[in-house]
Structure formats: C-alpha cells, structure tokens
Amino acid sequence: MNTAKHCGPWSSQPSPSVPPASPAASDNSNSVAATQSRSPSVASKWPSHLVIVRHAESQRNIWKEIATARRELVYGGKVRDMDVPLTANGEKQAVATGLGLGAEFKFDRVFVSPFQRTMETARLMIEQFPYAVETIEDERLREIDFGVLDGLTKHGIAHLHPEEKARRLKLGKYHHRPPAGENYPDVALRLHSFLGTLTRETAGESVLVVCHSVVVLIFRKLLERLSEQQLLAIDADKDQEVRNCSVTHYKFDPGASANGKLVLRDFNRVYYSENLQMKKAAE
C-alpha cells in the first residue's frame, strides 16, 4: 500500500503530453565535508544547499486512504488540518531521515511549516543531528488550503459539491481554486516571497525546509522554471508522487548559468527502510 498520498481531496489526473522534468542523478559524492555551510568559491545570493523534506506519514494520510477505499464522503472528523499528528510509522520515518541528513549535511538553519505534522517531523529529525541548528516557523510553507473541500474524499466532493467538481474539470487542477481555498498559483506567490527571504538571509548557507507535498512541487516549478504542463505531468506520475519524508535536494552550481543557480540533485529520496512500508502494508 502506497502511503505517500497527498492530503488533498483530488486524485491525480491523467498525465499531459508534455513529459515531466527528469531529476538530476543523485550526487553520491556528498559527504559532510562536501556539504559544509559556506561555499568559498563563488559569491552567490542562493544557499549552497537547499534540502526540502515533505512531512512524515500523518494520521490524515491514513484517514483519507481508508475513507476513500470505503467510498465514504469525509475523513478526519473534527481535527483541524493543522493539528494532525504523525503516525508511529511516520515518527520512525522522521528519525531515520534525521540520521541520514545529519550525517550528510551541516545545516545552518531549518525553516518549517507551522502545522503539527511538519513540526513533529522537523523536531524528530533535528534530534538526530550531531549539532545544534536554528529552527524558524514560516507560514508561507503551510499546506495548500482546500477551502470548502477540506476533509472531503473525491466521493464527498462529487456528492456535496458537484459544481466544484465540474468547475475543476473545466479549469484544471493547477488553476482550480475552491471557495475559501487556494490554487497552485496562490501557493507559488507565497513561495516566491519565501525564496526572496532565502536570497536575502541565507546566501552560501545550507538550509533545510520541512513542508508539504504540494509545496515541494511548487518549489520545483519555481526553481526549475517548469511549465504548468510539466508540473502536472510530474504530479500525475505515480513513480514521482511526493513520498512521506522524502528529500528533494538542490545544490548551487556556479557554472550552471552566467550567475550560477540551484540545480536539482535529488528528488523523492528516502532514508528510511522500505521494510517500514512493507510492514505497514501487511497490517
């Protein structure tokens, strides 16, 4: 059973004709020495390393999966999206990821979405680091707001808000904004602002960001200048579905353009054993 599900109500749409951007091959030469915070060779406005981690498995991931399989209309009960905790399996994922990242990187600071599942993920990872690091909550990294559709399965949307289902089919997943909610461009606007903060405050540093699956995808769109079609192709590809506690790593490359830029080195990498997933699927 695949646990790397979006927390939102929509299932992936068919892949468009434009192929997804292929992530760069993993840089197996990374080591603590190679990922120290300051990059001495090039003066850049960008961090030397930007590591983006989706939160570990949460209760909401499980609730949605079960409710959808049962064709129920709603999931999550009265628990606010921002108050959803990790599962026991998610806690193990975060610990394993922290051990891996702590051995590979020396982070200067950590930015984290203020939701409980991201805060718990960040805390468990940081506890494994062999060094102290500054942690900053940032609202701009929060989950996309699903508005009136929050907590509804696809069956619930079709039954309770058929007009929104029709409007989404017309506008597409990228541009559809549910009442009182956000669409992908809305998330991109706040991440534009966040990236501006990084260029002003973290030049040459190693930065860790803990956030949500849609936020990870929008980071990719902005940093790689993906088109709407390219982003949706990645989003619709089950092999590229953003996994719980997966790592997306950008490294500054001074030779990538006239002024250098952040280049994708890893996407959807996990440090925890697949045995965790296999054990859960069997339960």
Kindly describe this structure.
With 283 residues, the protein is α/β, with parallel strands linked by helices. The chain has a single domain (39-282), classed as Phosphoglycerate mutase-like (Rossmann fold). It is 37% helix and 13% strand. It contains 9 helices and 6 strands, in the order βααβαβαααβααββα. The chain has helices at residues 59-69, 88-104, 116-126, 154-160, 162-171, 184-201, 213-224, 228-236, 274-282, and strands spanning 49-54, 109-112, 134-137, 206-211, 247-253, 261-269. It has a 6-stranded mixed beta sheet. It is globular, with a radius of gyration of 19 Å.
Offer a quick outline of the entry.
The protein is α/β, with parallel strands linked by helices and 283 residues long. The protein has nine helices and six strands.
